[in-house]
Amino acid sequence: ENARRDFVSNVSHEIRTPVTSIKGYAETLLEGAMEEPEVARTFLETIDRQSERLCMLVDDILSLSRLERSEQLADIPFEKARAGTLVEAAMRACTPKAERQGVRLHMSGTMDAEIRVSGTLMEQAIINLVDNAIKYSDTDADVRIDVTQTADEVCIAVHDNGCGIAAEHLPRIFERFYRVDRARSRMLGGTGLGLAIVKHIMTVHNGSVSVESKPGHGSTFTLRLPSASATNTIN
Ligand code: ADP
Fold first, then answer.
1. C-alpha distances in angstroms, 107 versus 5, 86, 193, 224, 229?
2. Are 78 and 117 in contact (CB under 8 A)?
3. What is this structure's pTM?
4. 11 or 232, higher pLDDT
5. What is the per-residue burial (b if ≥16 Cβ within 10 Å, else e) of 82-103?
6. Potential cystine with 222: which of 1, 83, 139, 157 (Cβ 3.0-4.6 Å)?
């Protein structure tokens, strides 16, 4: 109940910021700024940016709420998928952002490893990690996605050489709205929910997500899933 109350209060706070900004700029436009085309354009661009942020926030909150319901109902249909296909799709989705920032995306490993997943959700988890790896890297950097397979597990690891995360923050970064640097996350268009979504996606798949990081050197986020052959044995 406490966690729920905290979440509602955090959500209200997060939503209030863009709404206040949109309202302020709209009012200023109506009070006369719209007569000055140059000023009006800047204000409208801010309104557009803040509305986009609001949409991303609402989308992420809805994703979390759907995942929580699915966790209880265990109603997500799983299908056999090739890890490489999911990684390639996630890389395609992140390529425009990577190119804008001058980040090169690479993939390596056992692309033919098979997992039982909801393809849409698993692709989303990989996208969230690659998106962060790009966001928290400098320009002219490399991000690598590596797939490994053991007898009963498939791991998808996303490595970056970005800013890294100090040890004291590591236990908390999967919490909703927890950010190491709030201003930087906001500036980069983050909602603070990406990793919480990844964690829930891994829970519905009986998998896990972990992180290793060194400030100034980079981070590795690893998704672990039972391999499809291991799941078959259990069934
Ligand atoms: P955000 O929208 O702020 O990126 P996330 O839930 O995706 O929210 O991540 C939570 C926080 O964890 C981020 O604000 C950032 O401080 C930290 N973080 C996540 N991924 C990385 C990364 N690859 N490198 C450095 N810091 C990261």
1. 41, 12, 25, 17, 23
2. yes
3. 0.93
4. 11
5. bbbebbbbbbeebeeebeeeeb
6. 157
Residue nearest to atom 23 of ligand 1 (CA): 133
Buried b (16+ CB within 10 A) or exposed e, 110-147: bbebbbbbbbebbbbbbbbbbbbbbbbbeeebebbbbb
Residues with CB under 6 A from ligand 1: 132-133, 136, 160, 162-165, 173, 178-181, 185, 190-196, 219
Instruction: Report the C-alpha gap between 73 and 208 in whole angstroms.
Output: 19
**Residues 224 and 210 sit within 8 Å (Cβ to Cβ):** yes
